[in-house]
């Protein structure tokens, strides 16, 4: 892949973390809810809702949770594209999992310790011990009790690593039944899960909603796009106007309960696939906003790791100085200042933690490989 296209994925990461960060900010400010979820005969009703709630319901950043979908699509694309470039039928799983481990786990581990013990000793109770251990082994998204504990953002780190472990299965299915059929299988798994949740409401719980079975299709869509892009084949042929209309249809769909409850995640994933493909084949030059997003994207992982636990504290701190109440201008300035604080911390983490961790992983793996070759 050309260097300019790799940079574009940093832009996309920057957009993804801004979406997630904005969603968490809105959730911290508007604690009573950021959107209307009242329906009559399956159609959204704004009767009795305040003007700000109507605005937030159709405000794009209120759907910042979709930033996680974008992160997963980017991950699927880049990992599979890297595999395709090696032009081999066999995945070196040891090398693959080593690189992924050192990329995400050491920064995560340090943040896990910080957030686990910052407000007390989490190990003082048996539940706390299990909570900590489930996070340590990246299994916490399998438990309703621990999915959103310690640091709510951590749930997707467990999901991400579980998706890495499923990559060999994806390659196996791709070889046996083909790429399209593999996507259909993953889609079927996600749809089947939704059907079971309709039939058995008891299954509507965080550990299932945030499970790898729900999000495997999202990750695979990124891999699917990578393969199409690698072979210079288009998934969609859509122009800028068409893309804007497709995003508009997302907000139309939001007016219907069935779409909102069962289809919204898949739909936004397909919209991201369309957008990324359009971006790759119609690449505008990287302007100043683009370069800014590149820098944010480089630090996006660290921003994701650290921002949520202390977000409310910082919001309350800045609100102390807003004697005239919360206005749009003041709130926007607060948002920017808070983001800058997290960005500066994350930038240091990227330089002094993330990059050295990746280098250490290479050294460790090379030594292991060298030692094994000497024993043979």
Strand content: under 5%
Helix content: over 70%
Number of strands: 2
Q: Reading side by side through the largest sheet, how are the strands ordered?
A: 1-2
Helical/strand content category:
mainly alpha
Q: List low-pLDDT spans.
A: none
Major sheet attributes: 2 strands, antiparallel
So how many helices?
A: 16
Order of secondary-structure elements:
HEEHHHHHHHHHHHHHHH
Q: What gyration radius follows from the Cα positions, in whole Å? A: 22 Å
Shape: globular
- The total domain count is 1
Cα separation of the termini: 36 Å
Mean pLDDT over all positions: 91
Domain Acyltransferase: 8-345
Keywords: Acyltransferase, Membrane, Transferase, Transmembrane, Transmembrane helix
GO cellular component, one term: membrane
Protein name: Acyltransferase
Characterization of this structure:
It is a single chain. With 376 residues, the chain is an all-alpha fold. The chain has one domain. The chain has helices spanning 3-29, 51-57, 66-85, 93-117, 126-136, 155-165, 167-177, 179-199, 206-209, 212-230, 240-253, 257-281, 288-298, 300-306, 311-319, 328-375; strands spanning 39-40, 43-44. The chain has a two-stranded antiparallel sheet with strand order 1-2. It is globular, with a radius of gyration of 22 Å. The protein starts with a helix and ends with a helix. The mean pLDDT is 91.
